[in-house]
Amino acid sequence: MRTARVSVVGLAAGALILTGCSSGGGGDAGDVSKDDAAKQQVRYDFGDAAASKGPAEPVKGAKKGGDLTVYQRDSYAHLDPAQMYVSDEGTMSTLIHRRLTSYKRDSAGKYTVVGDLATDSGQASKDQRTWKYTLKDGIKWEDGSPITSKDIRHTFERQFAPFISEGPVFIQQWMAGKSGTGYRKLLPDGPYKGDHLPDKVLETPDDKTVIFHFKDPQPDLPYALGMAGYAAVQEKGDTKEKYDKKPVSSGPYKIASFKSGKSMKLVRNEEWDAKTDPVRHAYPDAHNIQFGVSYEASTKRLVSDSAENQTAVSYTNQVDASSMQSVRSDPKVKDRSLSGYQPYVGKISLNMDRLKDKKVREAIAHALPAQSLVQAFGGSGGGELAGNYLSPTVAGHTESDPYGKVENPQGDVKKAKRILKEAGKTGQKLTFAFQNSPEWQDYSIAAKDNLTKAGFDVQLKDIVADTYYDQIGKVKNKYDMYHSSWGADWPSAGTVIPPTLDGRQVQDGASNYSHYNNPEMNKEMDRISKIKDPDTAAKEWGKLADKILKEDLPDVPLMYYKQIQLYGSKVGGAVNNAVISSIDPTQLYVKK
Amino acid sequence: MTSPSQAAIAGAETPDPDGVGLTSEPSGGQEPAKDQLVGRSPGQLMWMRFKRDRTGVVSAFVVLTMFAIAALAPVISWLYGKDPWTRYGQIEPGLLNDNGYPVKPNGGIDGEYWFGLEPGLGRDVLTQLVYGMRTSLSLAVIITILSVLLAIVIGVAGGYMGGKTDYFLGRLTDLMMSFPNQLFFVAFVPVVGALVVSPQDEMPTWLRASVLIFVMWLLGWMTLARLLRGQVLTLREREFVEAAKVAGTPPWRIIRKELLPNVVTPILVQSTYMLPNFVTAVAGLSFLGVGMPASTPDWGRMFATGAEVYQSNITYMFFPGVAMVVFIVAFNLLGDSVRDAFDPKSGR
Hints:
The structure holds two protein chains of two kinds.
Chain A: H1 2-19, H2 34-40, E1 45-46, E2 67-71, H3 87-96, E3 101-105, E4 111-115, E5 123-124, E6 130-134, H4 149-157, H5 170-176, E7 202-203, E8 209-213, H6 221-225, E9 253-259, E10 263-268, E11 286-290, H7 295-304, E12 312-313, H8 324-329, H9 331-334, E13 337-350, H10 358-367, H11 370-376, E14 383-385, H12 413-422, E15 429-435, H13 438-454, E16 457-463, H14 468-472, E17 481-487, H15 497-501, H16 519-528, H17 534-551, E18 555-566, E19 571-572, E20 576-577, E21 582-583, E22 589-590
Parallel strand pairs in A: 1-4, 2-11, 2-12, 15-16, 15-17
Antiparallel strand pairs in A: 3-4, 5-6, 6-8, 7-8, 9-10, 10-11, 13-17, 13-18, 14-18, 19-22, 20-21
Helix pairs in contact in A: 10-12, 12-13, 16-17
Chain B: H1 4-12, E1 24-25, E2 38-39, H2 42-52, H3 54-71, H4 73-80, H5 88-91, H6 105-108, H7 125-161, H8 163-177, H9 181-196, H10 205-218, H11 222-236, H12 239-246, H13 251-259, H14 264-287, H15 299-309, H16 315-342
Antiparallel strand pairs in B: 1-2
Helix pairs in contact in B: 2-16, 3-7, 3-16, 4-7, 7-8, 7-10, 7-11, 7-14, 8-11, 9-10, 12-13, 14-15, 14-16, 15-16
């Protein structure tokens, strides 16, 4: 027995020794840089009737036919549009659910909000309190019946039903003119007990016309209507809770089978008419989606590019941080990769209830090493240094960098030390809570190192990933600083600044994690959200974000999240869509 | 190695009535003192046999070197001019590339960083390894000593007293054996953390180490205790113990003077097996991310990092891996040799 044991160990040792060489990483700086940012940092124009006409601009070289294999990490928890708020569900939903508006990406990478079911992106009254939409001709459900304004009315009315709890609530709140959950009182049971929204809120004078009436100007309505959560639901086919498992499709594909956690098969919806759709294509005959494929596994499969993986892709799986090097250093694989921004900005939120001295917050801001976080997420493929609160994917983004986070990627410990000394707080205890994941674990080591050198007594607190946001979301939490990230719902800073920095929103579970509350700034937010011209509003949001950062420093911006995605060698038409922050599934085709 | 001829001679000897084992034996080498009978203590005999076992001597040397390296980690770090905490790769530009991997081949090995750099954080691998060994080995040594002591108490008590005491101690041993120690540890640490540490404070490293030692100790003594109980059970019925009882020797003295010297062999042999086991178990816990806190250099966590980066940088796994394999193999071989030296009759 003994000899056997020794030889086995010896073998393992030998294997280790044999493989113990590797080539250098090389100094390749990588590929995604600000050029992409410029491309993505666009104003999303509102398209007119001409721009909203189908069919969509053809993909070069695309052919119909073939089956696509799709690897996804998470199964879709919801198929009912009204329950969709998670980004990977939103990506898939572009294939099966149509909305009043959609985002069109042209071959130059320019985005326009166009009419999807509607003939244009919306006709607003002068005060932008009333928005009128006209439905197109020839739009049908998968059972062949036409999509009418009655279905649209039903779509919005059922958003008020108690069982709809996961989706976005913007339009409901605008309709009711109330923040928080107060909107539910407008139609407590949804449309199911015979009640309907009054005409002064939602008007459907004929089969083709939908008119929204709001209490306040809502210049962002066309953006909001393009969200997956506001996709159309068929009144006749509405099965309430059960709709979540078997929705009626209006898009180019319909669900042939769905086994939660295992697989999903999408097949062509014959009733969908390409001529009515300015955004979508339906090149492959079917999408065969497999769930439960981890980022690491999908990366390995797509890198190998063996038989069935050649026609495979993943809508939203990214290259995992540890495979980043191998993907980016192999030119053959790199050719089959797409990189782009995610909408999220990674920040360290400083608990304003506990860190009341601005000098202390400044010292923290200067000490934190942003580069270490980018490195933890796999280098420039996983993130980019951030100077301020607005991501490059949001209109109004600038290159401002008031605390030198981009200029000094390793942090300025000396300056931090000096500031802390001036404040007389050297040796202050600082509790840093972080999610117990490899990336943040790595970052916590680097952050602690710098903060300790700057003169803080750093206490690291790791929190289980599942409950992390619940823990830091408590207003009375006991931590001084914690990381948080937030992404825009549509490319307007109006979905970034108020949710994360409006002091009136501070409550348990709210996304204002720093508990920042400055009445002056709150007022400013109210003012800007009523500005009608999107360009002016974007600029004002940018100014306000920088002002808050400079004057009050509630969060330290560190990183704009990025991602790299792969596709098989026989998959064509793969483009990164900045709106859904992933591969655009409607443009894919299978090469012959 | 024990030559068969010698084993045969040894086997022919009759144990002395005092039961301490063989008091006389033909001296070590077969050549010099063939006919002379020299009185030697069992310890001397063991030492002579051990010295003749080349594998044993080599592995003992390896093991001692490893312990020396671990104990001298700060000295090595001082001579070498690096420490395991500084993020060299992040602070000095040009060492890590954009993806966080060393720019130079073979994990960034060069004249400056002898074993290369850690991908991501860019810490020095050599100092990480020696400090990590220090952490792991000191934990393992403490756990082994505590476990052996507890095993002696419980095993000897159960075996000598017999009856109900033995029954209950035996069931306790069974019960403890049924706990999966890694799961137990994963579940135990947060509880202790919540009980002892204020929610604003980090769990201090010493507390984490104490919890780790406590759990491993609690769940690590059973095998040896069972073994000792069996040994003591047979020894108890032997003539020399009965003689001592008849002579009115108090139980404590019997245990100390009559029983314990006879179970030294299993204790020593078993502990040379236990120690490497604890080293791997502690490393396993760190691998799972529930060992020592992330800022403490740790052998096991190096494997976890190695497993993450092996696709692009296999070299990182090399040094901790080879060190671990060499250590475990050497320690196991040493254990075998020690056993052979103590008890040349035990077969092979």
